[in-house]
């Protein structure tokens, strides 16, 4: 399965937070106080939007490449003053799968200690770290 990534526009007006919109995903928007928060929230917004489209039996729009978005006259106003970024679609399937992975014992001990500090299970910590790595 190929990794789907959607172009997003990030806007910030004076005295406002950062707003995020997706040219290929009409109606999907997000925001954040910082750019990093806006991008993290955009990942969640994109996932939730796709989940709702699929639940309604609607087609999920395919992402276009950067040049196609930038050349589309429909988005001339949206592009004005916007920063662009790429947001990965991380599908939340609502079910977990048991897997077998191998780690160096010292790394595993560090993972478990960090998970305990955060009040997380090892699985939750690793999932959170993986999501962060995929987004960054």
TrEMBL record:
Q: Supply the CDD domains for this chain.
A: RHH_NikR_HicB-like (cd22231)
The chain positions of domain HicB-like antitoxin of toxin-antitoxin system read: 6-130
| A Pfam family per the record | HicB_lk_antitox
| Top-level taxon of the source organism | Bacteria
User: Which residue windows are coiled coil?
Assistant: none
Per its UniProt record, what InterPro entries does this chain match? HicB-like, TA_system_antitoxin, TTHA1013/TTHA0281-like
Gene3D superfamilies named among the record's database cross-references: 3.30.160.250
Q: What is this protein called?
A: Type II toxin-antitoxin system HicB family antitoxin
Q: Which organism is it from?
A: Mesorhizobium montanum
